[in-house]
């Protein structure tokens, strides 16, 4: 009985091993290359597959997803005889597993060597400056060459990128100096442009300010002139409308004379020749109309000498030789010089009194009384 069970157990074990060797489960995005007696038989797809044990065997297990391959830095000589180290990154995908296994012995090594040779051909036709600024052009040429070469290997090149381009240390230092010089140049230009714009704006502002000030001064002068003209016109109309007599005009003439001596620096002032005539007119007019004992007489005003040629030279000479501590008055008329200041004060006082009396007479006349009743 035991001898019967042993062969059954052995057969069962062999059957289990046979089944295990026959069934193959392929994961997703994987491909298995099957050889039968050393020859390519088929490519197993993802899922459950069956093979014949001891007859079929798995040669290669391939991943058909997109792969990334980074090559080591490769020294490349540029057209201007400078050595640069270039790192590249390749993105590829296996499209034909059978070709990837049987058309090339090691596709990664083949791609790496093809990339190096292509880089040397492309970079050798460019100088350093163009190499640093033409990465897109280099990438396009690399991809074109690699696609043509790897197509028959069952590999598709999706992207080719240059990761780094490292020039020599001396070239880096020179490039940094050049960069700093360019930046300093741009900074200087921008600073100069800023100063230029600032000066232009300042000049424009000054110009506008000057124009506005000139226009303001012009308008102010016009307004002042208009005001003075209107004031003069009003005074002129008032004088003619009220029919001022010579007494009022002489009084206003004497009232304005003290303003001639205003000012701290006035040491010499000239009295017009009409002064004595105005004084004489005012004093004679008011003295003739004044009642005795109520109004100042003309005798209160010092009369000029009757003989102009007798005392005038002495009086003028005495006035010229006097002290310089006050203003000196020179008459421009035909009468001799005398104490003009006292005469002016007296005449002004007489004129004011005469005006007050005239106002009183006018008020009395309006009420029906005789002049001098109020």
From TrEMBL:
Coiled coil: none annotated. Residues 287-300 have a biased composition (Polar residues). It comes from the Bacteria. Keywords: Hydrolase, Membrane, Protease, Transmembrane, Transmembrane helix. Residues 21-179 form the Band domain. GO terms for biological process: proteolysis. One of its GO terms (cellular component) is side of membrane. Residues 317-327, 351-360 have a biased composition (Basic and acidic residues). Residues 287-337, 351-374 are annotated as: Disordered. One of its GO terms (molecular function) is peptidase activity. The keyword Transmembrane helix applies. The chain crosses the membrane at residues 6-26. The keyword Kinase does not apply. InterPro entries: Band7/mec-2_domain (IPR050710), Band_7 (IPR001107), Band_7/SPFH_dom_sf (IPR036013), Stomatin_HflK_fam (IPR001972). Belongs to the band 7/mec-2 family. This is Regulator of protease activity HflC, stomatin/prohibitin superfamily. The lineage of its organism: Bacteria, Bacillati, Actinomycetota, Actinomycetes, Propionibacteriales.
């Amino acid at each position: 009985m035991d001898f019967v069970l042993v062969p059954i157990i052995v057969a069962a074990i062999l059957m289990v091993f046979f089944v295990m060797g026959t069934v193959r489960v392929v994961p997703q995005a994987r491909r298995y290359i099957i050889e039968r007696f050393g020859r390519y038989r088929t490519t197993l797809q993802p899922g459950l597959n069956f093979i014949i044990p001891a007859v079929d065997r798995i040669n290669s297990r391939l991943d058909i997803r997109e792969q990334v391959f980074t090559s080591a830095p490769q020294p490349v000589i540029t057209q201007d005889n400078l050595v640069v180290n270039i790192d590249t990154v390749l993105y590829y995908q296996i499209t034909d597993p059978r070709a990837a296994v049987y058309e090339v012995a090691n596709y990664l090594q083949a791609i790496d060597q093809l990339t190096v040779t292509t880089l040397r051909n492309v970079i050798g036709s460019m100088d350093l400056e163009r190499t640093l600024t033409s990465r897109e052009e280099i990438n396009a040429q690399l991809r074109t060459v690699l696609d043509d070469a790897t197509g028959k290997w069952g590999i598709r090149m999706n992207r080719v990128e240059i990761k780094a381009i490292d020039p020599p240390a001396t070239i880096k230092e020179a490039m940094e100096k050049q960069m700093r010089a360019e930046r300093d140049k741009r900074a200087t230009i921008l600073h100069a442009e800023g100063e230029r714009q600032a000066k232009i704006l300042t000049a424009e502002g000054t110009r506008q300010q000057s124009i506005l000030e000139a226009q303001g001064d012009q308008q102010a002068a016009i307004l002042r002139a208009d005001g003075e003209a209107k004031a003069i016109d009003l005074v002129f109309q008032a004088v003619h409308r009220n029919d001022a007599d010579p007494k009022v005009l002489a009084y206003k003439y004497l009232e304005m004379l003290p303003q001639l001596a205003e000012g701290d620096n006035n040491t010499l002032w000239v009295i017009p020749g009409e002064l004595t005539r105005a004084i004489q007119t005012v004093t004679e007019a008011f003295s003739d109309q004044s009642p005795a004992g109520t109004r100042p007489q003309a005798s209160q005003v010092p009369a000029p000498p009757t003989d102009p040629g007798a005392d005038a030279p002495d009086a003028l000479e005495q006035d010229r030789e006097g002290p310089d501590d006050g203003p000196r008055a020179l008459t421009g008329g035909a009468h001799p010089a005398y104490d003009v200041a006292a005469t002016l004060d007296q005449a002004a006082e007489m004129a004011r009194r005469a005006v007050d009396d005239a106002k009183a007479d006018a008020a009395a006349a309006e009420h029906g009384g005789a002049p001098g009743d109020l």
